[in-house]
UniProtKB/TrEMBL annotation:
SUPFAM superfamilies: Acyl-CoA N-acyltransferases (Nat). Residues 90-140 form the N-acetyltransferase domain. It comes from Colletotrichum kahawae. This is Acetyltransferase. Pfam families: Acetyltransf_1. Gene3D superfamilies: 3.40.630.30. Coiled coil: none annotated. One of its GO terms (molecular function) is acyltransferase activity, transferring groups other than amino-acyl groups.
Length: 141
């Protein structure tokens, strides 16, 4: 018999522009470079450029009908040495003009933490966020 253990809640929050230096390495590591090859989201074999730059990420963070959600890895925090909690995952959720649909994108999970259920939980939270905040009944990628 398999016993499932409840997972502690993930700490989600909207990312402000000040989080760009935390988010860029996470996004780039999930999609490009050597570390991305550990996870399933790698695009390193398809393209060599950066996944996103500061200006592109700032545009997503400040989008009037969207949010970039940041998930931190509180378990990795060493309160004696770390000033900030490392990012575990992020995604963007944008309300589409029809008001009934939201777009889910910019999805990144730390390659070292992939295949542990984090992605499923982030997608679930993004869906709930879109329903709760905007009354959206559908989310698409």
């Amino acid at each position: 018999m398999t016993v499932s253990h409840p997972q502690p809640p993930l700490p989600f929050r909207p990312a402000p522009p000040a989080d760009i230096p935390l988010l860029l390495p996470l996004i780039r590591s999930a999609y490009r470079g050597l570390s991305s090859r550990k996870g399933w989201t790698t695009e390193a074999h398809l393209v060599a450029d950066q996944r996103i730059d500061e200006a592109g990420l700032l545009a997503k963070i400040t989008h009037p009908d969207g949010v970039v959600l940041l998930v931190t890895d509180d378990s990795a925090l060493d309160t004696d040495t770390d000033a900030s909690t490392p990012p575990l995952s992020c995604c963007e959720v944008i309300r589409k003009p029809d008001g009934k649909t939201a777009y889910f994108g910019l999805f990144a999970v730390d390659p070292e933490k992939q295949a542990g259920g984090v992605g499923r939980r982030v997608l679930g939270y993004a869906e709930e966020f879109a329903r709760r905040e905007w009354g959206v009944g559908r989310i698409e990628m």
